[in-house]
C-alpha cells in the first residue's frame, strides 16, 4: 500500500532521529536569538509558524520553552541538512497547507495570528477522534502527508530535539557525565524520579 510506504519513510526521517554526534553538534550550534532568527531552509512565515507551534508544544514551565532552547532553529537546520529533496518538498508543502488553514484571508499577516488559532489547529488535527483521520479517509491512496501526520512530525522533532539539548540533559534530567558505577535501584531513590540524560 502506497500510504504505508510514505508513512514509514516519513516516520524514519521526521519522527525518529538518532542522537548521533553530528545531530547533537547541529543542535548545539543553534544559538541565535529567536527575534532576529532568519530561517535557512523555511520561509519567514513558515519559521514563524514553526516557532509558535514549538512554543505551544513545549511551553515555558519550570523548564525552558522550545524557543529558549532554539528548537525551531534546530528543526529548520535539520530539515535542510538531513532530509532528502522529496521530504523537504513534502515539509514545505505541508507548511504551506498549515499557513492556509491559519490565515483567514490572503491579506492577513502570519505575525497577527493569535496563539488561540494555533491551539485550535492543534486540537482539531492532533486529537483524532476514534483513531479516524478524516483527511486520510477522503483519499486513502494519497502519498501526501495529512495535516495530523505533519503536526505529529513537528511534535516528534520538537520533543526529540528538546530532550537531546545540552541544557535539558545537564540541568533538568539526571546527569552523570562519567558514570563511575553501575546503578541498580529505584529511580525515585537514585535520581529523585528524574530520567537519565542521554
Sheet having the most strands: none
Order of helices and strands: HHHHHHHHHH
Overall 3D form: globular
Our count of helices gives 10
Supply the helix-strand structural class: mainly alpha
Helix content: 55-70%
What gap, in angstroms, lies between the N and C termini? 36 Å
Question: Poorly predicted ranges (pLDDT <50, ≥5 residues)?
Answer: 1-16
According to DSSP, the number of beta strands is: 0
Q: Briefly, what is this?
A:
The chain has 198 residues and is mainly α. Helix content is 57%, strand content 0%. Residues 1-16 have low confidence and may be disordered.
What's the arrangement of secondary structure elements?
Elements: H1 2-15, H2 21-28, H3 44-57, H4 71-82, H5 85-102, H6 115-126, H7 134-138, H8 147-164, H9 166-171, H10 187-191
Structural features, described:
Helices cover 57% and strands 0% of the residues. It has helices at 2-15, 21-28, 44-57, 71-82, 85-102, 115-126, 134-138, 147-164, 166-171, 187-191. It is globular. The chain starts with a helix and ends in a 7-residue tail after the last helix.
Amino acid at each position: 500500500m502506497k500510504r504505508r510506504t510514505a508513512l514509514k519513510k516519513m516516520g524514519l526521517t521526521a519522527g525518529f532521529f538518532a542522537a548521533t554526534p553530528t545531530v547533537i553538534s547541529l543542535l548545539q550550534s543553534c544559538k541565535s536569538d529567536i527575534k532576529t532568527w532568519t530561517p535557512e531552509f523555511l520561509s519567514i512565515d513558515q519559521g514563524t509558524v514553526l516557532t509558535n507551534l514549538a512554543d505551544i508544544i513545549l511551553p515555558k514551565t519550570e523548564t525552558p520553552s522550545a524557543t529558549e532552547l532554539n528548537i525551531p532553529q534546530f528543526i529548520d537546520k535539520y530539515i535542510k541538512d538531513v532530509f532528502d529533496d522529496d521530504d523537504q518538498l513534502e515539509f514545505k508543502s505541508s507548511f504551506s497547507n498549515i499557513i492556509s488553514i491559519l490565515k483567514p484571508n490572503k491579506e492577513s499577516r502570519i505575525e497577527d495570528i493569535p496563539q488561540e488559532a494555533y491551539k485550535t489547529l492543534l486540537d482539531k488535527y492532533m486529537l483524532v477522534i476514534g483513531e479516524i483521520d478524516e483527511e486520510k479517509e477522503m483519499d486513502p491512496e494519497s502519498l501526501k502527508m495529512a495535516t495530523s501526520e505533519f503536526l505529529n512530525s513537528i511534535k516528534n522533532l520538537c520533543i526529540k530535539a528538546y530532550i537531546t539539548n545540552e541544557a535539558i540533559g545537564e540541568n533538568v534530567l539526571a546527569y552523570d557525565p562519567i558514570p563511575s558505577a553501575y546503578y541498580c535501584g529505584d529511580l525515585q531513590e537514585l535520581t529523585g524520579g528524574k530520567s537519565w540524560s542521554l
